[in-house]
Amino acid sequence: MKLFCGSEFWNANLTLYTESPDLTPCFQNTVLVWIPCIFLWAAFPFYHFYLKQNNKGYIVMSILNKVKTFFGVLLWLICWLDLFYEIGKGRIQYPVNIVTPLILGITMLLATVLIQYERLKGVQSSGLLFIFWLLALLCAIVPFRSRILEAIDKGVSDQLRFTTFYIYFGLLLFQLILSCFNEKPPLFSSIVTDSNPCPESTAGFLSTMTFWWFTSMAVKGYKNPLEEKDLWSLNKKDTSEIVVPTLLKNWETEKAKVQRKNQAIYSTSSNKVLNHIDGGTEEAEVLLLGKNDMKQPSFLKALLKAYGPYFLIGSVYKLMQDLISFVNPQLLNLLIKFTLQKDAPNWWGFTLAFLMFFCALLQTIILHQHFQYCFVTGMRLRTAIIGAIYRKSLVITNSAKRSSTVGEIVNLMSVDAQRFMDLTTFLNMLWSAPLQIILALYFLWQNLGPSVLAGVAVMVLLIPLNAAIAMKTRAFQVEQMQYKDARIKLMNEILNGIKVLKLYAWEKSFKEKVQQIRENELKVLRKSAYLGAVSIFAWTSAPFLVALTTFAVYVTVDEKNVLDAQKAFVSLSLFNLLRFPLNMLPQVISSLVQASVSLKRIQSFLSHDELDPDSVDKNNIASGCVVTIMNGKFSWAKSDPATLHSINVMVPHGSLLAVVGNVGCGKSSLVSALLGEMEKLEGEIAIRGSVAYVSQQAWIQNATLRDNILFGKPYNAEKYRGILEACALLTDLEMLPGGDQTEIGEKGINLSGGQKQRVSIARALYSEADVYLLDDPLSAVDAHVAKHIFDNVIGPEGLLKDKTRILVTHSITFLPQVDNIVVLVDGTVSEMGSYQELLTQNGAFAEFLRNYALEDVEEDEAIELEEEEEDFLDDTLSNHIDMVDSEPVVSEVRKQFIRQISVISADLENPQKISTRKRKCSERKAAEHPPDKKPSAQKLIHAETAETGRVKLQVFWEYMKAVGPVLCVFICFLYCCQNAAAIGANVWLSDWTSDSVVNGTQTETSMRVGVYAALGLTQGVLVMISSFTLALGGIGAARNLHSALLENKFCTPQAFFDTTPLGRIINRFSKDIYVIDEVIPHTILMFLSTLFSSVATLIVIIASTPLFAVVIVPLAIAYFLVQRFYVATSRQLKRLESVSRSPIYSHFSETITGTSVIRAYGRQDAFVLISDKKVDENQKSYYPNIVSNRWLGIRIEFIGNCIVLFAALFSVIGRSKLTPGLVGLSVSYALQVTMSLNWMVRMTSDLESNIVAVERVKEYSETETEAPWIVPDKRPPEDWPTQGKVEFNDYSVRYREGLDLVLKNLTLQVKGGEKIGIVGRTGAGKSSMTLCLFRILEAAAGEITIDGVKISEIGLHDLRSKLTIIPQDPVLFSGTLRMNLDPFEKYADEDIWKVLELSHLNKFVSSQPAGINHECSEGGENLSVGQRQLVCLARALLRKTRILVLDEATAAIDLETDDLIQSTIRTQFEDCTVFTIAHRLNTILDYTKVLVLDKGEIAEFDTPTNLIAKKGIFYGMAKDAGLA
């Protein structure tokens, strides 16, 4: 080296053993100058590659850029000036004077070129150059000081060099400062167009590293609660638009690859097998490819290809962090050494303290970069998985759909996608944990020698324990998931059919079912708690046990082995480093196992069969015919028997084909086959042109009425109005508070059945398709409306007269007007032809007609048109919604005026008109001041409110009450004890290391070891007890809160369910209860342990260095501020995130129920976009949420690092008075505190965010309840009602407070055994009247008595169990058919077979292998609508009470079945009082009396013959139906 630079390279006396250290000139001129240069050149190739990959477009030259470049050029010139000056001297003294300026000059040139290259590639702030300038500046500080000292001592020897160096130093400083500033964003980037872009995209390097760019949101969130509009847009690369296609592309290639492989396997092996089999290929195929041999496409590979590379960057950060984390124990070692050397210069200690600080700081920054990459990967995974599942759910076959219920698929989206997200955070631990363990062991070996092996042995023994616990926990989790799934599925069905449960008084049996599942769920939870306590014991005691065995072995193996402070505390800090990987490893593994289960579930869902898009041929079609089926054979699943066989149908262009037949003969299936929804076993289907489809049960979206009709088509006012008129919807619109802008609730809850169906027809009309498939759309509407729709829409004179129409119908009135009729019997076409042809054929159809045609067809056509028109107009005036009863019919002008005012302000004189049933008070507060809500009258279902502001202490108190206050105090006491034990053990250790050494040995080692062990184990046992007590408390609370919620929901009045989306209630039962079950207890556990350990640390540090107390106050203030900023913002972000989460799932379940409609109209892409938008909205609040954790982590850890710095500094300052043991104790405690502090804030926040679940569950457990089920002292006699005499006395009712009356002052008497038919326009109050009998609606005035008993005084169950209803929508629950008829198991099997026979189901049921234990699927999907209606009839027959109510029960049934039902009711309920809400007047013509309702008042009430003679309203209706 002397030859190279003319002086020695290293001089320890000059550098180390002096109070004023310096480095040799040679060292300064070589190493210090070369370090930054080497860094830049080494990083450059990678950086160049990175920039080529990520080109963001160029940035326009700015002043900042020019200045940077100018300074760069200056630096380069200055270096070369040095070089030429040296060359110019003539003789070169030492090579270093040439080499160093040369290297430096070329590097400066590279830096300058980079400044421009980055500008062209759109880099706004360069991290590489920032680090380079920083390194160069740091390395220049030493010569900076040396030269000044030299100049003071000897004067300046080389003036030029002296000057150029200080100019160089100044320029470096400038460059460093300039590189902290940002360039403008690149031209044409999305940031420019976005209204609220995420500042991350424009943040500088420093800002990105410290997450400073997030501060603006933290401050905003602290000042006032964040709202939707404050959130930044999602970064382009995280949006569904980019993320989902990436995954799908990889998944498709993966699938294609596997398909090729499977074909290869098949073709090679089939040749061998075929030689031995004569049965042809089918058998061979079965033999060859048993399910197991088929290779499944791997979803995992697709995920890795899509998101692996990005994730790897995070892994690199993790590697750096792991390596740096081992520096601090080494520094601690040096620090303890330093306290022992009393003559060492002080600056050593200070340097060590600051080095510790910088190491910790660097570690913090790197760790959080790693987390950021992991979390963003997780977030993208979730987006991609949800997107993939959504897209798949639009194309899976019906059999695949049957294998997973809606609930399960939603679970795939919510739970399984979430698991992946959680896994990505820890995935790196798989390689990082072993690495950390190896490093730690290596350093420990150096410290303590072979004794470490004893410690390792303990660790190895603990691993199987941890693994066993993890496996068992896993098993419990699976079990619990099953119970949870079952419970949610059951709750879902209960809430869907809550009205039916109320009408049948079946709540109790279903409540018991739920509670039974819940008990099992809690049992599993308790078992998990036992396990959890053991695992926490293992987790706290592991490091301690390892340390104990190691130290004990170390001191006992050899007397000469002295345990001094250095060995003890450095080992302890290494053991603490070991603690994290050792405990994470089993967790990561169990998390991996969980994710792999989820992976399988998702993979199997994504591998389901898809509907064959070509099963319906859209191109090749026989001329003249628009729809053809050639010997078609169809089934719902490939494995099922064919539902339809040998079907041959041809429909010429522009004709109207009617499909008729009995219930369950395959009419709807035929329509499904035409839509391509069924499996085509053989034959051909072809359809020319686009299709519009009206399903039997109208599918209505949760959107405005207009959106439901437009269904994505552009709005055309004229066409739209014409369609509304044709579908008789205009009058309905006048009654809706917001006109066609009224929001329709989930499942069309605020429309009557008929209105839903008419909206569905309007949607089909608006779509202007070529072929219309109408699946019995007329059965849900009244006869006269049906006639209007047939004449104006479907029939030969309707809007669709030139289109091809296929109409499934039960109504014979319209058959003469259709072109062709297909008669289906048991899934095949029995006859086909025109009306006249079929009559002359005199087959099954003619027979069927003769029974039902009540008059000659010619007569029907001869009705004078004008008269009919007039009548119709009169009728429709009172045609309005069931739910919202009309205001008096005011003049048109006033109506207009009211409608405008309803939007602008509150209409004070008659507020209920506007705020009708469109307001949802999700908060009780809102209910107290209705006037403020007026402007949003159109909304039925208001957005779920996210609570804002700090969680009230009240909520914590509610939770503590649920746990039990005494238990809470006891838990805290246990935590205090366990921390006292832990401190005791460590203080004892510190004391032990300071024992005097006599003749190279310590005395009393066995006593020392014994006490140390006792203290440590005490701590472990206390931890176990406290965690178990806490878990039990949590389970107790969970039980109390859930049972209160369940209890309340079963007793909530029907109105609540009509105005609250089911998803919102289900959310309480699933998400919130899950949080209370599992998340809150865990969070509290973490919170308490971190809180107590942080306090313990501070106590220890203050005890050893009292000076530290001075720093605590400012640090505590900083901590508190960061914590408040963070908690306020994070809590609100979490709330926003959870509020924006439910729409994803509710839109998803809405989509799944409407897939056939969406597919028929070809709207899949639009729905995919909506779903993506909802996911992005959700990620928009999730992303800042992740970043807020990083922001917090960096700031809190900075405070923790300050604690380390001060603990070390004060140890150095007070080293004369301190023993090495105390220094070790204080600093090793300080090194651990960062983690505790960080988690403590995180847990405070988690606790505040999660405790909201208690608040939400509480809110729904305290909604108002209906009257008691049983009033003990007012119980009616067992056999009541004996006669069935019903009286209404001046009875009025309204749907909810503040709404108009639906029924006004009804007074009527019905004698026992009378049969009453109730008729009236839609919304005249027919259904309301039946609801009043059951007290679903409570009286506003007046009363109803049955057999002299006032129904308002007795318990609801006593009342409802004594009445029977056959409701409008047949609701079935999943379970056996027997359970659906008799949930309380009161009746014997023979009774059940008897009612099945009476309700004409026995043929169907006995053909099922399981008989009456035939499983009904969710909602009875595997029975036809008519069969479900018959099941409801069977229920009624089984209960057989004196009073029977029939509500539109005849709607979805063909005439024959209708006749069966009617005759059954006539014979079986002969002596009962029957109320029938009739749509088909012929069913009630022989009733005792007919009640005609109009606008909630009795218009006519008399025998049918008298009413027809009177020529009033009833006469008009009868004439419409062709009966008068």
- What number is the mean pLDDT? 83
Structural class: alpha/beta
Cα end-to-end separation? 122 Å
Radius of gyration, taken over Cα atoms and rounded to an integer in Å: 40 Å
Characterise the protein shown here:
- The strands form six sheets. The chain has a six-stranded mixed β-sheet, with helices on both faces.
- Helices cover 62% and strands 8% of the residues.
- The relative contact order is 0.08.
- The chain contains 55 helices and 23 strands.
- The protein is an alpha/beta fold and 1524 residues long.
- Helix 22 runs antiparallel to helix 39 (1005-1050) and helix 50 (1389-1398) packs across helix 52.
- The longest helix is centred in the middle third of the chain and has 51 residues, at 507-557.
Outline the fold blueprint:
Elements (H helix, E strand, L loop, with lengths): L1 H4 L6 H4 L9 H5 L1 H23 L9 H26 L7 H25 L6 H28 L4 H20 L11 H4 L11 H6 L4 H9 L16 H35 L5 H9 L10 H26 L2 H14 L5 H48 L4 H6 L2 H21 L2 H20 L3 H45 L1 H7 L2 H51 L7 H42 L18 E11 L8 E9 L3 E6 L5 H9 L3 E9 L3 E4 L10 H6 L6 H10 L3 H6 L17 H14 L4 E5 L7 H12 L9 E5 L11 E6 L2 E6 L1 H7 L2 H9 L4 H5 L3 H13 L14 H13 L6 H4 L9 H5 L24 H11 L1 H29 L3 E2 L2 E2 L2 H46 L3 H6 L2 H43 L4 H45 L1 H6 L3 H50 L6 H31 L1 H10 L24 E9 L6 E10 L4 E5 L6 H8 L5 E8 L2 E2 L5 H5 L2 E4 L8 E2 H5 L7 H10 L3 H6 L7 E2 L8 H15 L3 E5 L7 H14 L4 E5 L11 E6 L2 E6 L1 H7 L2 H8 L4
Parallel strand pairs: 3-7, 3-8, 5-6, 6-7, 14-21, 14-22, 17-20, 20-21
Antiparallel strand pairs: 1-2, 1-4, 8-9, 10-11, 12-13, 12-15, 15-16, 18-19, 22-23
